[in-house]
Amino acid sequence: MANPMSIIGKNAVAIACDLRLGLQALTVSNDFPKIFQYGPDVFLGLTGLATDVQTVSDLFRYKVNLYRLREERDISPQTMANLVSTSLYEKRFGPFFVNPVVAGINRTTGEPFICGFDSIGCIDFAKDFIVSGTSADQLFGTCEALWQPDLEAEDLFETISQALLSAVDRDALAGWGAHVYIVEKDKVTKRLLKGRQD
Amino acid sequence: MAFIHPSSLLPSSNPSYSFREGIKSSAPGIQEHRFSPYADNGGSTLGIAGKDFTIIAGDTRQSSGYSINTRYAPKVFRIGGDDDSGTGAKIILAVTGFAADGNALKERLDSMVKMYKYQHGKDISVKACAQRLATILYSKRFFPYYTQAILGGIDEEGVGALYSYDYVGSYEREQCRAVGAAASLIMPFLDNQVNLKNQYVPGSGVGHDLKAKAAEPLEQSHVEQLVRDAFSGAVERHIEVGDGLQMLIATKDGIREIYTPLKRD
Amino acid sequence: MFIARSEYDRGINTFSPEGRLFQVEYSLEAIKHGSTAIGVRYPGAQLLLTLSILTRLSLKQVATSEGVILGVEKRVQSTLLETSSVEKILEIDSHIGCAMSGLQADARSMIEHARVESQSHAFHYNEQLRVESCTQAICDLALRFGEGADGEESIMSRPFGVALLIAGVDEDGPQLYHAEPSGTFYRYDAKAIGSGSEGAQAELQNEYHKSLTLAEAETLVLKTLKQVMEEKLDAKNVQLASTTPGKGFRIYSDEEMAEVVGRLPSN
Fold first, then answer.
1. Which one of A184, C62, C100, C227 is at 20 to 30 Å from B156 when CA atoms are compared?
2. Which residues form a coiled coil (chain A) (predicted)?
């Protein structure tokens, strides 16, 4: 199943995913978002086994809700990243088959933050972009070539959209449109990219 | 009770030269010798055809597994030149995959192209050379050259021509193509920047009503920059790509070569 | 020459002391007994340029209004003979054809070789074989007779007894070649072979000019054939074929033959 990705801009982050859900060559759904929101500006993208995607997203809903009740504040993307990491490592020898991506803006510092994980919680802190899923190779190529530092929100949207659409068009297991979130301080914009429907 | 020493799980310390299969021991006292005629030497090539030029580029790293055989082994060649340095050649061939097969293929096509000139009293066209390469590859249908080839030059109308092949000679003329280890990284970038895929005319509609931007012939300097960007991206994210970038540019005046270093890590 | 023969006639690849290969020379004699065949290349250039203004042809049509006409006589021995079964002009590929004089059966294997060579070239190079390369390919066969050298298998016991006029069109325009059993070939503007070749060649020499049109070339070929033929020329005992950039090689149908023969001045 396909790909979330996230990239960093100037005081903003973007996170996007395609909408296909499939069992190998069989497309089961063409409206299956893989990005979940856990705070005003904290997002988690999940790829991998569909049942694990749903279970893990629900598990973090449960954990983040408890965190908010106990701490009486929203979770920061950094805290979210550590929560994801430790939760995945708990299943070190029977892992969830997911490769998560976290993106958000830290309320206190105002800094954008992204990171990615393997299925047992090893964190990849990146300063530029994180990709995951079946089109990871293609996404590495497009991001590496299209991304540049200090992108403003609109340019960030264009960059992540072009990178994602071009990448999934070269992957038979991904595509069917995409969701893009542009996360700025105090503002989240969600857009639907129609993309190729084949 | 059998005890497996951890060192037996590590890769063999026996020399295995360029072949992926070394000497295997299947049971105590019995040694299985196996020879594999193929190896993967990594690396990547790409080609872009313009209005009156064609650029074919490749990195110069040659590796087997995690080790680097050499930092300068060209994968892009002049075909049909007058001497060993390829002076006077008009056609470019790039090969990735098994380097030995790539070299053999290059030598064979080169001699065919020279023979063609003797037999027919004219330089071979890119179109004819493309078909010849396909028949050479197909002639080894059941013991193929383990190489993915791209062929470029200027066609009979003076337009940049680029042909890409599979291992056994199925081929197609295209505007651009990335091949080899980092093909999956580079190809979507070329789709986006050369054929302008997923680029639309702003304000021309919403959703699927948007009007797609028409791909137009690119300037040579622009294409050169795209090639550099494609490879610097591939070098960052693929361990088999690096060391040097060799760019051969075919125009009506012949073939020009540009070499630039790439990261060696 | 006929006095000096003897032991040098036996070894088919043996030079005589004068440096001659008798069997090859005799094969040239065999052609002199063959029916007459004529080829004429018509450039059609300058004259047609003025013509184009009159007929409002486009310039492109003018530029391609050149070609080669081949013509052969069919010796109709019997009134019971079906003349359409006398095939002395054959297609090699869509852009090359040839006329023959001499032993027809020998021409079969040469033309078969040329056809294979032409198809093979198209397969390997995705382009049509050039006329000169095709002629060369035919002539490569010519000396593969006799015992055969080491490694190369000989396929024939004697030289071919047939000469060919090869007409074709490629990127250099329409061309006419003459190929002999000796393996040599030359390009001609107009050439006659066979029993009437001497008279016919002299006639061509007189009548040929650089601004022949298609119709003039057709007439020239038929007029020349008529002069050297023993029988009275009609639409049944001659055959024409044309090679043009537009239509490639084409053998004339019965209707076309009747039309062209009908144009001849009767005398």
1. C62
2. none
Nearest-angstrom CA–CA distance, B208 and A194 = 7
Q: Which residue has the tokens 């028409």?
A: B214
Residue of A nearest to B189 (CA): A142
DSSP track, A35-93: EEEEETTEEEE--B-HHHHHHHHHHHHHHHHHHHHHHSSPPPHHHHHHHHHHHHHHTTT
In tens digits, what is the pLDDT along chain A, a chain of 198 residues? 467 788 888 999 999 999 999 888 888 889 999 999 999 999 999 999 999 999 999 999 999 999 999 999 999 999 999 999 999 999 999 999 999 999 999 999 999 999 999 999 999 999 999 999 999 999 999 999 999 999 999 999 999 999 999 999 999 999 999 999 999 998 999 999 999 998
φ and ψ at A53, to 5 degrees? -55, -45
Task: Report the chain B residue with the minimal C-alpha distance to residue A136.
Answer: B185
Q: Is residue B1 part of a domain?
A: no
- How far is Cα C240 from Cα C232, in angstroms, rounded to an integer? 16
Q: Residues C113-136, buried b or exposed e (16+ Cβ, 10 A)?
A: bbbebbeebeebbbbbbbbbbbbb
Cβ atoms A21, A54 nearer than 8 A? no
Are the C-beta atoms of A135 and A171 separated by less than 8 Å? Answer: yes
Look up the domain containing B65 and give its range: 44-250
Q: What are phi and psi of C60, to 5 degrees?
A: -65, -40
ipTM score here?
0.90
- The predicted-structure confidence for B114-171, as pLDDT tens digits, reads as follows 999 999 999 999 999 999 999 999 999 999 999 999 999 999 999 999 999 999 999 9
- CATH assignment of the domain containing B212: 3.60.20.10
Question: Which residues fall within 8 angstroms of residue B216, CB to CB, at 6 or more apart?
Answer: none
For residue C139, give the nearest of C170, C168, C99, C178 by alpha carbon.
C178
**Which residues are A27's β-sheet partners?**
A22
Closest Cα in chain B, distance from residue C136 (Å) = 9
Instruction: With respect to residue B33, please indicate whether it lies within any of the assigned structural domains.
Output: no
Residues 6+ apart with CB under 8 A from B84: none
- CB-CB: which of A138, A146, A195 is closest to B184? A138
Residue B26 maps to a domain: no
Per the structure, the count of domains in chain B is 1
What gap in Å lies between CA B171 and CA A62, rounded to an integer? 54
Sequence-distant (≥ 6) Cβ neighbours of residue A43 within 8 angstroms:
A6, A15, A35, A36, A37, A102, A103, A104, A181, A183
- Interchain CB contact of A123 with B (< 8 Å): no
Domain contains B257: no
Q: How many CB atoms lie within 10 A of CB B186?
A: 34
